[in-house]
Amino acid sequence: EQEIIVSAAASLTNAFTEVGKKFEAANPGTKVVLNFAASGPLLQQIEQGAPADVFASADQKTMDQANEKKLILTETRKNFAGNGLVLIVPGDAKTSIKALKDLTLKEITRISVGNPESVPAGRYAEEALTSEGLWETLKPKFILANSVRQVLDYVSRGEVDAGIVYATDAAVAKEKVRVALKLEKHKPILYPIAVVAATRKTDPARRFIDFVLSEEGVEILSKYGFGKP
Amino acid sequence: MTQTLVPLLLTLKVAGFATLGASLVGVSVAFLLARVRFRGREWLDAFLTLPLVMPPTVLGYYLIVIIGRRGWIGSWLYETFGVTLMFTWQGAVVASTVVSLPLVFKAARSAFESIDPNLEKAARTLGLSEAGVFFRVSFPLAWPGILAGTMLAFARAMGEFGATLMVAGNLPGKTQTLSLAVYDAVQAGNERMAATLVIITSLVCMAVLVFSG
Amino acid sequence: MTQTLVPLLLTLKVAGFATLGASLVGVSVAFLLARVRFRGREWLDAFLTLPLVMPPTVLGYYLIVIIGRRGWIGSWLYETFGVTLMFTWQGAVVASTVVSLPLVFKAARSAFESIDPNLEKAARTLGLSEAGVFFRVSFPLAWPGILAGTMLAFARAMGEFGATLMVAGNLPGKTQTLSLAVYDAVQAGNERMAATLVIITSLVCMAVLVFSG
Amino acid sequence: MVIEVSVEKRMESKARHFRLDAAFSSREQCVVLFGPSGSGKTLTLQSIAGLVTPDAGRIALNGRVLFDTQSGVNVPSRHRKIGYVFQDYALFPHRTVLENVGFGLKNDWPWRLSRDDRRQVMEFLEAFEISQLAQSYPLDISGGQKQRVALARALIRKPDLLLMDEPFAALDTLLRVKLREELAKIRRAFDIPMVMVTHDPEDIRVFAETLVIYEIGRVRECLHFLKSDGTDLEEVLAS
Amino acid sequence: MVIEVSVEKRMESKARHFRLDAAFSSREQCVVLFGPSGSGKTLTLQSIAGLVTPDAGRIALNGRVLFDTQSGVNVPSRHRKIGYVFQDYALFPHRTVLENVGFGLKNDWPWRLSRDDRRQVMEFLEAFEISQLAQSYPLDISGGQKQRVALARALIRKPDLLLMDEPFAALDTLLRVKLREELAKIRRAFDIPMVMVTHDPEDIRVFAETLVIYEIGRVRECLHFLKSDGTDLEEVLAS
Ligand SMILES: [Mg+2]
Ligand SMILES: [Mg+2]
Ligand SMILES: [Mg+2]
To answer: Which ipTM value was assigned to this complex?
Structure first.
């Protein structure tokens, strides 16, 4: 009986939970512990010695930092999924937003985005809004969240009027949030995965990555709305 | 500099208001419980002590249920006045008040209860009204105990993290107190910032401790 | 079911060990401070009380500096035994112990100090050694106060959030205690889960309060 | 003075039940309540002062009804004009001797003593030979001095009656004799009627004009020495 | 007995300084330390019992040196074989009367009394007429009963000397007379020497064979009544 810890970006919560179960079924004797948070904090944890074996981030920048700090085995790094960025509003919202610039309307008082310092979804949102020249204008309305799932939570509870999350997140909470529009002017969203350098369980870690990249893995991911890399 | 000054000032503002609120409520209820015998007296005590033993995140959950935009009071506030406490420094004050209330309350109650009842009786025979007895005898005699409780409450309010994070979020310059800023800086791997914030906070806490001890 | 049972059992394990550690240290130092006069006595008291007034995130930062993989003790532990406390339930125990220590310590010290010194003197004239005086007089008489402090420490350890989050992370099944699970469930918008966890935690906290009161 | 006292009061606590049912009256100036501790003497005294509300009974002083369950009268303590010297003196520890003595002179905000009031307090301190303690705090003065402060604080309000609860119990035997004489002198000087609680027979010898003998919860006997009805003090004490 | 006491001790606190420098000796069975409160009587008694360590001095009992700064002797309290009855009796509130009296009989783990020890405790309870209180806790018994428990607890260890600190101060005047007689009887029955602290002249009349008169921090006089050196007790008390 052995156990691997997979530190994965918050947006992977539902998909990787299923991936983990299927992997355990396919590899008897190996248990998967999943640790979800924003990619930035996950990187910090690994740097401080968190016993993670696999790291899956939601953006290339965080994985690049991990690579620079020699926290991952470079040769194991692979891109395994893609995603889209959407603007969501609470399901019962009366306001209708047809374009990003509608966010400047007076009735939109609070917009939640991930904190660009540590949340990849926040960085993509910053890019998209900056290219429309809206980032600085909208700043006073921002409610910065610690992870993309917190953005989703704020919108579903109606605490904010709008939020920017991944398409896959919006799909998870269909009954509570409505996709107002898709965002496009940002770098392509590519999820990289790699084995953590400090692991002593290189074998099962590699096997987990292989499973994610396998046909079965890709199928699960696409079921939750992730695109091919 | 401003990066540490802004959260420090915000923290002092939030903790100050929270301590004020907690002291007013805590001292009045403590006096009531120490002097008047009524049914459910000990239940009220237990209820007010609950935040001392309850995880701050659970308190945060309850506060969201109550003052969230769709909460019992929150929805009314929003529909009536168009305001919401979530993600505002006022929300942080509410969270910190709840969390630090038991500290003043407990200290004040035991301070009032340890006053020799003959002193209050003596004041009555000297012609003092009940209000006079409170302001000229009970309160001044309980003051050292109340002050110590208030200092602890202030320190607790300064350090509040879990409930504040859930209710007020972590908005730099708006609701990001020292405690949250430390967390943020460590999360973002900003080591110098983290160290600076930690040192400032430690100094303020030690000052509080020295004053209250 | 297991989703709530696992964090509950983990919480009880972590809080249990933390309370044990905090009680052993807290009671011994409290007795020392209550009975022996030495230089720096009040400084030691202040140092042990610090966690009560310090933000848990700041404590988390210090703990990372000390027991983190690159910390003073942490690096030695890692190089010598190949173990690290970060992100383990043992790390959560360390964080909770530090946080709950002042509660036992303060209660025990005041319990020891409120014992009539003549009772200990009487025991000496009756032929008891100093150890006998401690185990047959001082400790049994201080017991109600110590117990109350221990219960509060247990509750505090159960609710620990900030320092645990930083030191032990939030790994389901390994370091995710109730307090963290509540935060996580709310974050993840998992309302039923959040509500279940909150109710369980509230019940446990109220039980603790009733027992300690 | 004319004092009529009749009080009933149940006290319940976890450990014990106590029922007081006591009545006495007197037309003399000095009433002494005598009996073992726990017999209800202090409870009677506090009922007279209005610090405890009896379950039933009637208390009247010089024809003025202070308490009466039948007619529903219950004058609040602050309006009874009764001075009370507590067994442990109950001086305000956060106030100086001067402030203690002047405490009851001005009872509405802002509680500052006028120049006249201060002068009066100083005169009292001199009369009680405690001027030199004016700025001391109760913690720093001796038991005998505390008693004088407590007396001065009660008498400065010119009460109609002075109640004293075991005034000498806290003092050394040596000091006790001296202060007993002093009190007798002061009482004559102020010409104020008094009800005193004690369990010391010596107090009876010096003070009692009316002697009320308590046993647990009730009055066993009420004796009037000035009436010369054949009651002999020494005989009573010997029994 | 032969007792020699000479103690020096400085006590410093924020509010006041106190210096005790007292010496007396006696060959009689009953020594009474008399004087105002705060004069150092209790401090002397605790020095004899080894509960307080004097700065300098010498304490010897029947030729056995218990304390001597010169030769560096300081026998720990538990080996002095001295019984002590505290002013407030200092009964263990968490133990029954039976357990209190038997407390000092078995002092190594596991502290359970043997059947013989229990029988001895029961005999003592009977001798002190408190058998019916065996299972009561100190909180629930009266002052006079407490005194008997404290006495029995001290005497059951067959000490060489009994120290008593104001044994009657906490009692009613009425009860005091009765218990004073009882103590005199018990002392004779156990034939145990005693040092008693008091500020009540009546105790001197009943107990003093040697009288040590204290004034603040020192001994004013040490009188021996049994030697019939012309000292008259009543004369002393009158002065
Ligand atoms: Mg009384
Ligand atoms: Mg004494
Ligand atoms: Mg007395």
So the answer is: 0.79
**pLDDT band at residue C186 under the 50/70/90 scheme:** confident
Please indicate, yes or no, whether residues D109 and D168 belong to a single structural domain of this protein: no
Name B122's Cβ contacts closer than 8 Å, sequence gap at least 6. Answer: D84, D86, D90, D92
The parts of chain E modelled with pLDDT lower than 70 are 13-16, 227-239
Contacts made by residues C16-21, CB under 8 angstroms, sequence distance 24+: C16/C154, C17/C93, C17/C97, C18/C93, C18/C96, C18/C97, C18/C99, C18/C100, C18/C153, C18/C157, C18/C160, C19/C100, C19/C104, C19/C150, C19/C153, C19/C154, C19/C157, C21/C93, C21/C97
Whether residue B67 is predicted with pLDDT greater than 70 in this model: the reply is: yes
Q: State which of E120, E139, E158 marks the end of a domain.
A: E158
Residues D36 and D91 in one domain: no
Q: Is the dihedral of CA C59, C63, C66, C71 positive or negative?
A: negative
- Tell which of C126, C133, C138, C143 to mutate to test the E interface (max E CBs under 10 Å): C126
Q: What pLDDT does residue D238 have? A: 61
Query: What integer pLDDT is reported at residue D236 of this predicted model?
Result: 66
Residue B166 Cα, ligand 3 centroid: separation in angstroms?
Answer: 62
> Would you say the pTM of this structure is higher than 0.80?
yes
Q: The domain containing residue D180 runs over which residues?
A: 1-81+160-239
Name the token pair of B210: 């020295």
Q: Is E in contact with C (3 or more beta carbon pairs below 8 Å)?
A: yes
Best mutation site among B120, B126, B138 for testing chain D: the one with the most D CBs within 10 Å? Answer: B126
Say yes or no to pLDDT of B93 above 80. yes
pLDDT per position as a tens digit, D94-135 = 999 999 999 999 888 788 889 999 999 999 999 998 999 999
Q: What is the DSSP letter of A196?
A: B
Residue C172 has a pLDDT of: 80
D27, D65: one domain: yes
* Cα of B103 to nearest chain D Cα, Å: 25
Looking at CA atoms only, how far is residue B184 from chain C in angstroms? 10
Please count the structural domains in chain E: 2
Contacts of residue C158 in chain B, CB cutoff 8 Å? 53, 55
- Answer whether D touches E (≥3 Cβ pairs < 8 Å): yes
